Fold this sequence. Notes:
Helix content is 52%, strand content 6%. By secondary structure, it is mainly alpha-helical.
Amino acid sequence: MLTTLDTVSLTGPLDSAVLRRAAAPLTVTVDDETRARIDHSRRLFRDLLHGDGDSRIYGATTGFGALVGYAGRADEADQCDNTLAHLGAGQGPDLPPAIVRAALLLRARSLAQGLSGVSAEVVERLTALFATTFTPAVPRYGSVGASGDLIPLAYATQALRGRGHAYLDDRRMPAAEALTAAGLRPLALDGRDALALVNGTSVTTAATALARDGVRAAHRALAALTCLLADLLGCDPGFLDEDLLRAYGHPGAVHVGTRMRHTLTGVTPSGTRPLQEPYSIRCAPQLLGAAEDALRYVDGVVAADLGGVSDNPLFFPADRGTGKDTGAAGGTDGGTGRGADAGQVTGPGAGAGPGKVVHGGNFFGQPAAFAADLLASVTAQLGNLAERQLDLLVDPARNGGLPPMLATAPGREHGLQGVQLATTSLVAEIRRAATPAGMQSLPTNLHNQDVVPFGTQAALRSYDMAELLGLLCGSLAVGLRQAVHVGARRPTAPGCGELLDALVATVPAVERDRPLDADVRAAARLLLTTDLP
C-alpha cells in the first residue's frame, strides 16, 4: 500500500495511523487494479440481479431487516431513498469528526475490495471528500452494531447526498451547502450502493482503533512516569529485575520490564526506602505487562477489522474461487479472515456461472465489541494506577517527606490538591463507563436481530475513556514535575532526567495557587504525542 503523510491508497489494508491522519485533508487514491475489481463486482451484481432463476438479492429486490420477505421498490433511486430514510432515527450529540472521517475511509476501503457490488463512482466520490474538510454530522446514538452501524452510516450517506447536515472547516451547516462550498457533488445511489454504504461496522472499527491508539499512548506514558516516580523517590529498581519478570511467565511483563529498565539505566537508589515498595510501584511491571498482553489481543482484532470486508450480501466472482485471496476476500492476519468459509456457502440467490451472491453476517461487530470491552478494562486499571501513584506522591507519609499536596507553603498554598480531587472524579467516571457492553444483547427488529453485540456503544465508550486516561497521565506528570520543585531529588537516570526536563519546559512550577486544568492538558499532550524513553 502506497502511504505517505498526505496520500493513502485503498489497494491494501489500512492502519490506525492512516485513520488518525484522515481527520485532516489528505489524498486517497484508487488504482486501476482496484477500480477493475470494483467494476467486476458491479457487473456480477447486475448479472445476478437480471439473470435467470432466483434473482432475490437483499436490499436490491427486497425490503430491509425484518421486512426482507416483502418486495422492495421497483425504482432503484426510490429503493435508495427507502434504505436511508427509515434509518434517520439517530439521537444525541454529533460524533467527533475524527471518528466520522475515519469510518468513511474504512467504508471506502471495504467497498474497494470488490465484494460489495457497488459502482466504482461510489468509491471514487467517497475518496474525493478526504481532500476537503467535509465531514457528515452523525448523531451518537442509534446503532446496535449488528447489521453494521446502520443509523450513523445512514446519516453520513445522506450528507454525501446533500441531505441533513455536515461540517466544513469545523462549522456545522446544511449538507448541501457544505458540499457546494467544498467543491463536491451530491452522491447519486441505487439501492445496492446505499445498503453497502450503511451495512458495515466502520464506525465501530474506527472508534475502537482510535481508542486503542489512545490507550497505547497512555500505557507507554505510564511506564515512563512510573520510572520517573521511582527515580525521584530513590526506589531500588529490583522490582524490574530481568530474571524476576522472566520467571513470572507473561510476555507482556517481560516486554514492559525491558523498556522500563532501559529508562532507568544509570539510576542510583537512595538506600532510604523500605525493602518493598507499595504495589503501585512494585507491581507496576506486572500490571502494565498484563495491559500489554491485553492490548496485543486488541491489536489483532483491529488489524483484522481494518483489513476485512464488513457488508451483506457479498458478491463472489467465479474467478475468486473459494475466497482464499487474502488480499481482498479474506483478511491478512494469519488466516483470521473468513473468505474461505464464505466461499463454501450456497443458498437462495446463490448464482451460477459468473459467480454468486452470499447472504450472511459479516456486518456483525462482535469481535470489536469484545475488544473494546477489554480495552475498557485495561483503561480502568491503568487509570487506577495513575491515580494511586499521584496519591502516593502527595502523601507526606509515603512520599519521602515531601510537603503534603506538594504545596510550597501548606495551608497558605494548596499545591496539587485540586488536581488530586479531579483525578478521583476521572477514575470514578472511567469505572462507571467500564461496564461491558458486548454481552448485553437485546433483541430488536421483530427478532430478526435477536442477538446483537452493541459494539458501537463499546467502541465509543472506550474512545471517551481513552481521553480521560490521558488526563490522568497528565495529572500524574504535573505532580512529578511539582515534586522536584518542592524538594524531591533530581532524577539520577538520564532517561528520567530527559522526561523531567520536557515536563519542566511544558508546565511551570506551582508557587502560588492557580488553576491547573490547562497544565494537565498540556502535560497530557506532551506525553501522548512524544516518543518517550
